[in-house]
């Protein structure tokens, strides 16, 4: 563990080997992968059903042996680009990785197919084998997905002709070209957007206009990329027999369609909480609100924190979750896994890049605000999750999206509780207002983005792919329903869908944030009970080794029970009331 005296006094920047792997090693590890793929195929194709448990365990390890360096290299390239890498070398590495992923898909498709085709009795016996314990949840997921797996012939055609990877490369280049020019300064979106949280209304308005101006060029190309990606994914899903555009994401999260629908309906039914919040905010600011005011601070803004103060606050909060959690967070900060330096070339906002082997790196822009401190806590939550599951391989270390977001949002909640307990009466309303707004955004704005995405899928499926104008109309409609009458959205805001990475690269993932927020809010109520920290550490060490229901159940949260969602929503409602009372 890195000691306090070794922590940086200014926001740190990644070293060139932030994964703990020299760059040349990352690249060199890709060289033998084609040969390994060939050997794997020759050894196991057509034999999976015959393998005893010891050989199947070896086959799974062999499978991981070529997936691991490929995953590490891919994440490394993506992280370098997001941090503002020069571009050519990173894109070359990423292109190489994508070619290898396509090769892997074509050559190893048989493996999961044959696992899925195992007779029920044989599969049940294998799932009970101790030697396969680490892979048990992975095998269950493969078995569950087998019903929607295309035939070998169709899979071979998809591996050669599926246009998704090509459109994703195109979308990535379009997004990388977005630059914001404000008052003569050229910025990436990651550096430009935090101004929307500042108190100066004139600066917020100017920055909003600058972001809108940056999004206007090539919005038609981004619209085409989004609709073509949607079309290609829907075609692939039809070939796989999937009945809804969320089927694959729900399966990955190990949730039923009914459970997801119950979550979405529960959140939608309480949308008036957002309207009440912004009505109160409008009254407090003494004027009507526009989209430039959505994140404007209310009340006395808390003093900005230095980097050491922010680190001390977050690590102090993590201490309540046990020594392993706080030690892992301190180690990540101390060994250079966090890049928090504000700089214009950063292409993204806050992200954590995780790879098998416990490797994580965190990207954020730290300027000392409350939002920055909570972002640090959130991203460290992701990184600690990866660090504590380092003993797991690539097939088991990564948790479902809903579970990952639950952990990260819970890390935020624990940090905010710790901060509020330290704050004086004058600072508390401002802290509470910002935290409440963040929670409402996570639960309800993400639902609104999900609705936008669902409408896009419906339109494309009906043979009416929306152009940039139609996408702008959809966006304004969904966002207007979210914020309610207290917020007037400007015409330029119709462009703001077009920079959201997840729409292009991770469709269907937005509901995970609503899941995570309500789950985190519910967990916080019992976080100080005896034994909670030990059970939480067990959840982190399990990585993706269990379903959300299995791993959250011991902590008192059960996704299948409607009361779980209502507890989180009731807590948010109480906070809306407290906010209105505190600032009245």
Question: Layout of helices and strands, plus pairs?
Answer:
Elements: H1 23-28, H2 33-44, H3 53-82, H4 88-116, H5 120-127, H6 136-145, H7 152-161, H8 164-176, E1 180-182, E2 185-187, H9 189-192, H10 201-215, H11 219-239, H12 247-252, H13 257-268, H14 272-285, E3 289-290, H15 307-318, H16 323-334, E4 338-339, E5 351-355, E6 359-363, H17 370-388, H18 401-422, H19 428-461, H20 468-483, E7 487-488, H21 501-505, H22 511-525, H23 532-542, H24 548-552, H25 562-582
In words, what does this structure look like?
This protein is mainly alpha-helical. It has 3 domains: 1-14 and 304-400 and 408-422, no CATH class; 31-149, Oligopeptidase f, N-terminal domain (Butyryl-CoA Dehydrogenase, subunit A, domain 3), CATH 1.20.140; 242-302 and 427-584, Oligoendopeptidase f, C-terminal domain (Neurolysin, domain 3, Orthogonal Bundle). 62% of the residues lie in helices and 4% in strands. The strands form 3 sheets. Strands 4-6-5 form a 3-stranded mixed beta sheet, sandwiched between helices. Strands 1-2 form a two-stranded antiparallel ribbon. Strands 3-7 form a two-stranded parallel sheet. Strand 5 and strand 6 (359-363) form a beta hairpin. It is globular, with a radius of gyration of 24 Å.
The biggest beta sheet is recorded as: 3 strands, mixed
Number of strands: 7
Overall residue-averaged pLDDT value: 91
Uncertain ranges: none
CATH topology of the largest domain: Neurolysin, domain 3
- CATH top-level class of the largest domain: Mainly Alpha
Figure out the total of helices. Answer: 25
CATH H-level name of the largest domain... which superfamily? Oligoendopeptidase f, C-terminal domain
Share of helix among residues?
55-70%
Specify the structural class. Answer: mainly alpha
What is the CATH architecture term of the largest domain? Orthogonal Bundle
Number of domains: 3
What general outline do the C-alpha atoms trace? Answer: globular
| Quaternary status | single chain
Protein name: Peptidase M3A/M3B catalytic domain-containing protein
InterPro entries: OligoPept_F_C (IPR042088), Pept_M3A_M3B_dom (IPR001567)
GO molecular function: metal ion binding; metalloendopeptidase activity
Cofactor: Zn(2+)
């Amino acid at each position: 563990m890195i000691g306090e005296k070794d922590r940086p006094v200014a926001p740190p920047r990644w070293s060139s080997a932030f994964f703990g792997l020299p760059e040349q090693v990352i690249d060199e590890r890709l060289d033998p992968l084609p040969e390994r793929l060939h050997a794997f195929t020759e050894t196991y194709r057509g034999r999976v059903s015959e393998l005893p448990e010891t050989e199947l365990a070896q086959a799974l390890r062999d499978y991981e042996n070529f997936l691991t360096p490929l995953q590490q290299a891919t994440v490394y390239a993506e992280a370098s680009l997001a941090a503002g890498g020069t571009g050519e070398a990173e894109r070359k590495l990423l292109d190489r990785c994508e070619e290898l992923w396509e090769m892997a898909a074509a050559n190893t498709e048989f493996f999961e197919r044959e696992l899925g085709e195992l007779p029920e009795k044989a599969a049940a016996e294998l799932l009970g084998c101790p030697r396969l314990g680490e892979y048990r949840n992975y095998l269950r997921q493969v078995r569950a997905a087998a019903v929607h797996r295309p035939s070998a012939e169709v899979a071979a055609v998809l591996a050669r002709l599926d246009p998704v990877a090509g459109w994703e490369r195109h979308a990535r280049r379009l997004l990388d070209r977005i630059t914001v020019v404000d008052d003569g300064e050229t910025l990436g979106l990651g550096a430009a957007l935090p101004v929307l949280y500042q108190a100066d209304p004139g600066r917020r308005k100017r920055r909003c206009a600058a972001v809108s101006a940056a999004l206007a060029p090539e919005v038609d190309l981004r619209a085409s990329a989004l609709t073509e990606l949607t079309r290609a994914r829907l075609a692939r899903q039809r070939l796989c027999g999937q009945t809804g555009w969320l089927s694959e994401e729900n399966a990955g999260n190990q949730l039923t369609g009914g459970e997801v629908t119950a979550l979405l309906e529960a959140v939608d039914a309480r949308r008036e909480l957002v309207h009440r919040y912004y009505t109160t905010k409008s009254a407090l600011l003494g004027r009507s609100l526009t989209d430039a005011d959505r994140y404007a601070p209310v009340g006395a803004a808390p003093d900005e924190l230095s980097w050491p103060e922010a680190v001390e606050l977050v690590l102090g909060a993590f201490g309540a979750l046990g020594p392993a959690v706080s030690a892992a967070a301190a180690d990540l900060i101390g060994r250079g896994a966090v890049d928090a330096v504000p700089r214009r070339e950063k292409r993204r906002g806050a992200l954590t890049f995780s790879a098998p082997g416990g490797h994580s790196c965190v990207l954020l822009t730290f300027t000392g605000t409350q939002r920055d401190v909570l972002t640090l806590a959130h991203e460290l939550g992701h990184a600690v999750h990866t660090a504590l599951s380092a003993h797991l391989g690539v097939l088991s270390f990564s948790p479902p999206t809903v579970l990952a977001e639950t952990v990260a949002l819970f890390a935020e909640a624990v940090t905010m509780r710790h901060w509020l307990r330290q704050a004086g009466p004058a600072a508390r309303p401002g802290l509470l207002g910002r935290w409440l707004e963040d929670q409402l955004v996570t639960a309800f704005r993400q639902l609104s983005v999900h609705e936008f995405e669902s409408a896009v899928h419906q339109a494309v499926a009906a043979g009416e792919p929306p152009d940039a104008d139609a996408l702008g109309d959809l966006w304004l409609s969904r966002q207007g329903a979210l914020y309610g009458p207290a917020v007037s959205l400007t015409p330029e805001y119709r462009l703001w869908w077009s920079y959201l990475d997840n729409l292009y690269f991770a469709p269907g993932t937005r509901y995970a944030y609503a899941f995570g927020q309500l789950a985190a809010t519910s967990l916080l109520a019992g976080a100080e009970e005896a034994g909670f920290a030990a059970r939480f550490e067990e959840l982190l060490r399990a990585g993706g080794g269990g379903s959300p229901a299995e791993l959250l159940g011991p902590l008192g949260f059960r996704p299948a029970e409607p009361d779980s969602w209502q507890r989180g929503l009731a807590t948010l409602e109480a906070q809306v009331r407290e906010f209105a009372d505190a600032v009245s």
